Each structure stands twice: as C-alpha cells, then as structure tokens.
C-alpha cells in the first residue's frame, strides 16, 4: 500500500494549483511575420496580448493587424496599440519605458489577469506557456526582476559608470543624446536608484501601482525628471519606483529569460549602438543554431530566450525552437523520468485527494494520468541559497511536478484531479565558511564539465561510476541574507574555508578535503582526498583587476558502479580539530526497474506529495473505451502516463 508523507508548507493556498492568467506585452519594431510566429507559440484564448509597434512604423503596424485578423479573426484578446499610443522606442531611450507603461495600461483594461510579462519582438519561448502559467500559481502578488548587483547605484557613485551616470540623456527622432552634465546624483538617503534587467514578470497590483502616478511617494515623484533622463532608463526607472514602494518586499530577484553573452561591438568591431546613442552601449548577441545547445541546458529554469533574428521566420534555429516548445521539453525527459514512476505518483496523489474528499479508497478502480508538467520553483526554499538563486546560478534550481489524472470508481464515475510532487534537491547552501553551496550529480553529459545541469529529478541513476561535484565559494557578506544568518547555530565546528585568503592577490593556501560516500549501514563505498586551489589559474578572468570574492570549483570522483539504494555523501576539511561535516543524502534508482524503490523514495522524503485538488467536470460513465481514449491522448501528447489498475 502507498504511504503518504506530508511536509508542511509556509502557506497553503487554494489557488496554488490553479494556473495563472497572463498578459503578455510585445515591443516590436519590424518583421510582422516573426511577431506572428512568436504569438502562435505563446497564444492561448484565456491570456491577453498587447503589441507595441514603433510610432513611425505604420506599414509594420498595418501588416501585423492584417496577419492577426487572418490568423485569429474572432480573437478579442489581442490588441495592437494604435499610433497615438505608440512611441519611437529606440535603444537607451525613455520611450521604451513609456511604451511599457502604455502596455500596462492597455492590459489592465482588457480583463482580469495575474501577471504581466514584457517581451521584445526578438524573444522566443523555450518552454510551453502553460508551464509558465502553472509555475507562477503559488506566487500571485509577487513580481520578478533581475536586480543588478551594484544597486543602489547612487550609494557609491565613484564605483559606477563615471561620466555616463552623471549626464542627462534625451531622445529625439530615434537617437538618444548626451545633453548636459548633472552636478550631483540624487542622495541615496533621499531616494535609492536601483537597476534591473529590462525584462520582468509583474503582478497586476504592481502594474496598477506603476500606472498610478499620484500614489507614488512625494520623494519619488520629485525625481521623475532624473529617472526619465538617466542612462538607459529602461533598466532603472521601473526598478527604482518599485524598490521605493510597498512592493519592495514582493520582489523576487531572479531572471527567467535566457540571454546570450553581452557584446559591445558589431560584426565590424565598431560600437554596437553608434547609430542610436552617444555611447557604445552593449547588448546580448544574436542566437544562432550552435547556441541552441546552451539554450536547452538552461531550459529547466528559463522560459524565454533573446535575441533571435527576425528577418527570416523560417530559419532553422527559429524552427528548431518552435519544434522544441511543441514537443521537445517533455520528450527530452522521457528517458530519465520513467512512466512507471509517474503512474505511482499519480496514484499517490489520487489517494490523498480521495482522503481529503472523504471518499472510500476501496471504491477506487483505475487512475489514468492525463498530463505531466515539470515546473521550476520560482523562489528558493533554503534562505542561504537566495544569493545564488538571484544570480540565476543553475546549481541551486529546484523543481516540482504537476500531474493531472482521471480516477474511476466502482459506480462507473470518472473524476479529474491535479496534484503536485516536490523533489529533494541534490544540493545545499550554508551560512558559515567560504563554501556557500555544494551540489553533486551522477547524471553525465557532454558539456565542458561533463555533467548535466541540475536535472529535474530527485534521484541519481543507479550503476553510475562517477560523481560530479560543484562547489561555490563566496567570502563577502553580501551573499548572506538575514534569514540565512538565522541558521548559523546549525553549523558547529570548523567549516570549509580557504586559509590565508587574499582576494586582492587571488591567493590562498590549498584547501584539502575528505569526501566519503557511505550507505545506510555506515559501510563506506569510497573515501577520497581532494585538493582545491584559489588562484589566478582557477578563478578565470578578472574584471578590472578587482578583488576576487567568489569562485566555482568543479571536480569528479570515479568509483565502482553504485548499486540502487540510499547513500550519504560526507565532505569535510582536513587538518582542523573539529571539522563540520557537510552531508547530502542521495537516492540511486535503476530506471529500468524502478517500482521496488519508489515507496522508499517517498518514505525518505526524496519526493513528497504536495497539494491536491479536484478539477470540476461533469461526471462521465466509465467504460473501457474511455480508458483507451485516455491512453491514446497520453501517447499523442507524450505525457508518459498510463492507467494503473489497483
């Protein structure tokens, strides 16, 4: 029989399993067919779409409206802003902010929605939009911005962008000019100037606040002109207003958009934005076919990628992205998440739901899984992981599963349910010592480190003979938040730290570690000694010869094939009197014969049942044909599930 283990959450909500409604705003400049292609990939009848086209691009606007009418002639949830509500949104100008605010206002008038997401015409989704709507369910009222690490920018102006930060910038006819120098930056004690990435996910209440100027504090309104004429206002205007508002506590600093490495020059090695503004600027490179491998490696934790060329919608890289969104993500997981595991989890969810509904379990005949989603957690569980999470480090990503299922009872009635499965991550984060996070995996890949980036599973593959280690070190207090420091008392002993560390010289004594893998009977499977160095050779490129306060180090240990079972990995510093032992519990499963081990995975908390809910639908009499149709649907959609007879 299946035993259910409940782990309390911070605050259960009846809406946490109800997908959100979205308003998606697209800022387009040209190439209407590429915009339609983007729309086709993210369109759902219950979401809302607002499109801004540059004010002078009348031909683009007209052609886009015609294409939309031909594609979805009856749609009332797509709005192309007319010329009177459009702006010349050139790079680095305040007009981008004006267009975004116009998008907020238009979306608010279209209907009820939970989140507003701003995109450019050169974005493409890399996950199904339904996955994003589901992932956001537990975070209604929050917003997500990729906050820049050097914010607030006016706390220490000497460390900032020099002349660029201290000039007035004004846009005219698509070009942004440097027009005057300001004497002093606004004092931080009066207003903190924050910076973030341009792309974000905003709650409806935040959108209402941003478009209600009289509700802003007087000191924020006082600095309106400065915010509008500062350097690259689309990266500071909204962030500054929100960080100086009650929404400050609702911001989750995290980037959910994949961007290629930024470039400052074009293919001719000339200033990238020389035709748009009085300084070179920089921006993400254009994604091409070879870049998709890197895009897919971030697929578990990001939803959109930018920028793609838009002149050729039928190009191979755009078609591959389109195919991946339609079929690729779920298909790519079929070899690591066995169908039998999902069957088992569906039954576990169904039994919990029936128990909640006070329905006799003895009446249950069949459970058929109809939908399966792998979703990233949009906020870290461990407060000590917050800094790495906000920097979008892949090694601290966490996941949940959403499963939908039909269940059939003895009187022939079919009902529908939905539930979540939580996964224990193969990493941990710490409040003391230089070691901030520690992750391991036996899932091997072909990237430069030989390991697959943080797969959305709660187990390792039995029979693996190699363990890959990722250690993240940070010496600065900025990586430790208040809630993380509350956990300091849990770490007693000598932590993993580099002795005689000199960040300015990038030197330290070698760090010697002992790594041990043992089973539940305390029998050692292997024990190894590891030597790590903090040096110019291991830290990589330095930025402006600044002190190095963080470093990621990787190593691998080869061992005999690891049999199925539960193991504990220990790691501690050598040569200290009372070493603190960093531990991770690991579950190794045989994917071709997983059934005998699933119950222990639940009992040991490697996976656990979360919330469940009944999905309202008319009762349908249960026939064998119903089951065949359900299986056919599952196979067609590649949701891996089948009915499990009890």
UniProtKB/TrEMBL annotation:
GO MF annotation list: metal ion binding; protein xylosyltransferase activity
Keyword Membrane listed: yes
Membrane topology per record: Single-pass type II membrane protein
The keyword tRNA processing belongs to this UniProt entry's keyword annotation: no
GO biological process, one term: heparan sulfate proteoglycan biosynthetic process
Keywords: Disulfide bond, Endoplasmic reticulum, Glycoprotein, Glycosyltransferase, Golgi apparatus, Membrane, Metal-binding, Signal-anchor, Transferase, Transmembrane, Transmembrane helix
Pfam families tied to this protein: Branch
Compartments, record wording: Endoplasmic reticulum membrane; Golgi apparatus membrane
EC identifiers of the protein: 2.4.2.26
Protein name: protein xylosyltransferase
């Amino acid at each position: 029989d299946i035993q259910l283990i409940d782990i309390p959450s911070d605050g259960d909500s009846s809406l946490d399993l109800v997908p959100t409604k979205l308003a998606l705003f697209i800022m387009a400049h040209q190439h209407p067919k590429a915009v339609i292609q983007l729309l086709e990939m993210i369109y759902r009848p219950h979401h809302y779409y607002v499109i801004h086209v540059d004010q002078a691009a009348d031909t683009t606007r007209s052609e886009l409206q015609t294409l939309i009418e031909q594609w979805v002639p009856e749609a009332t949830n797509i709005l192309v802003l007319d010329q009177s509500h459009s702006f010349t949104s050139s790079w680095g100008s305040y007009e981008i902010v004006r267009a975004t605010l116009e998008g907020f206002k238009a979306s608010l008038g279209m209907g009820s929605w939970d989140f507003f997401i701003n995109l450019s015409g050169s974005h493409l989704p890399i996950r199904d939009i339904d996955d994003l709507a589901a992932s956001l369910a537990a975070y209604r009222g929050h917003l997500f911005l990729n906050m820049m690490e050097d914010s607030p920018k006016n706390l220490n102006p000497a460390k900032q962008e020099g002349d660029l930060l201290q000039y007035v910038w004004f846009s005219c006819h698509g070009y942004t000019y440097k027009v005057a120098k300001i004497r002093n930056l606004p004092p931080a004690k009066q207003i903190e100037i924050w910076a973030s990435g341009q792309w974000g996910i905003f709650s409806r209440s935040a959108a209402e606040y941003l478009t209600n100027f009289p509700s802003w504090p007087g000191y924020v309104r006082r600095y309106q002109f400065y915010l509008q004429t500062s350097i690259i206002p689309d990266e500071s205007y909204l962030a500054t207003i929100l960080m100086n508002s009650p929404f400050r506590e609702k911001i989750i600093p995290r980037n959910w958009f994949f961007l290629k490495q930024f470039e400052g020059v074009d293919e001719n090695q000339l200033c990238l934005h020389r035709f748009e503004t009085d300084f070179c600027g920089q921006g993400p490179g254009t994604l091409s076919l070879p870049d998709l491998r890197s895009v897919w490696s971030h697929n578990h934790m990001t939803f959109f990628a930018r920028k793609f060329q838009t002149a050729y919608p039928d190009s191979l890289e755009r078609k591959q992205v389109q195919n991946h969104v339609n079929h690729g993500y779920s298909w790519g997981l079929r070899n690591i998440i066995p169908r039998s595991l999902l069957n088992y989890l569906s039954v576990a969810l169904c039994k919990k739901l029936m128990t909640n509904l006070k329905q006799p379990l003895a009446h249950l005949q069949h459970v058929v899984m109809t939908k399966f989603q792998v979703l990233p957690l949009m906020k870290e569980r461990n407060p000590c992981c917050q800094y790495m999470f906000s920097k979008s480090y892949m090694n601290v990503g966490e996941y949940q599963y959403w499963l939908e299922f039909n269940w059939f009872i003895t009187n022939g009635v079919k009902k529908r349910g939905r539930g979540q499965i939580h996964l224990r991550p193969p990493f941990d984060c710490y409040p003391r010592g230089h070691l901030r996070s520690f992750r391991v995996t036996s899932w091997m890949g072909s990237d430069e480190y030989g390991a697959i980036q943080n797969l959305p599973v709660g187990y390792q593959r039995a029979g693996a003979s190699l363990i890959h280690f990722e250690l993240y070190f940070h010496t600065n207090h900025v990586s430790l938040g208040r809630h993380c420091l509350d956990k300091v008392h849990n770490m007693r002993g000598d932590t993993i730290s580099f002795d005689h560390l000199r960040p300015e010289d990038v030197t330290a004594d070698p760090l010697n570690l002992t790594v041990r893998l043992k089973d539940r009977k305390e029998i050692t499977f292997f024990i190894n000694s590891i030597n790590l160095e903090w040096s110019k050779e291991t830290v990589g490129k330095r930025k402006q010869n600044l002190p190095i306060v963080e470093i990621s180090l990787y190593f691998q240990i080869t061992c005999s094939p690891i049999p199925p079972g539960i193991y504990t990995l220990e790691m501690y510093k050598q040569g200290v009197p009372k070493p603190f032992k960093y531990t991770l519990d690991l579950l190794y499963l045989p994917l071709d014969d997983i059934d005998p081990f699933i119950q222990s995975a639940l009992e040991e908390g490697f996976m656990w049942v979360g919330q469940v809910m009944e999905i309202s639908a008319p009762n349908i009499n249960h026939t064998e044909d119903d089951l065949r149709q359900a299986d056919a649907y599952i196979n067609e959609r590649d949701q891996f599930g089948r009915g499990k007879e009890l």
